[in-house]
């Protein structure tokens, strides 16, 4: 499997979840929330895999409510579970996620978390 094929499969899997806008690359700013981007982290040629980082971004006036809105996407099961749709895709394994914290992207502060490595076997 090629890098672009692995990335496109992740984007397609995430697009099946109702809610987040999905981008196949890191963007400078977000206009719809929640949003998730697919970022290539590296290739391991020994075990023939690609690694990706998936930042999940939210914005809202009420920090507690906004943080809680991300929990369904981080659950290991359920209709909003990013882990479930990615693990269901053959060859993908979600390794870890979190923490939820404030992070500046393009000079704007957002509430974010990451699925901190998704490895797709090539």
Structure description:
There is one protein chain. The protein has 122 residues and is α+β, with helices and mostly antiparallel strands. It has one domain (3-121): Alpha-Beta Plaits (2-Layer Sandwich), CATH 3.30.70. The protein contains three helices and seven strands. Strands 1, 2, 3, 4, 5, 6 and 7 form a seven-stranded mixed sheet that branches. It is globular and about 45 Å long. The model has no long low-confidence stretch (mean pLDDT 87).
Secondary structure tally, helices: 3
**Number of domain modules:** 1
Instruction: Extract low-pLDDT stretches.
Output: none
- In the CATH hierarchy, the third-tier topology is known as Alpha-Beta Plaits
**What is the strand tally?**
7
Helix amount: 25-40%
Mean pLDDT: 87
| Assigned CATH class | Alpha Beta
Shape: globular
> What is the strand content?
35-45%
How far is the N terminus from the C terminus?
A: 4 Å
Could you state the order of secondary-structure elements as H and E? Answer: HEEEEHHEEE
List keywords for this structure.
single chain, 122 residues, alpha+beta, Alpha-Beta Plaits, seven-stranded mixed beta sheet, 7 strands, globular
List the helices and strands and how they pair.
Blueprint: H1 3-14, E1 21-23, E2 35-37, E3 39-44, E4 49-58, H2 63-74, H3 82-88, E5 92-94, E6 101-105, E7 108-121
Parallel strand pairs: 1-2
Antiparallel strand pairs: 2-4, 3-4, 4-7, 5-7, 6-7
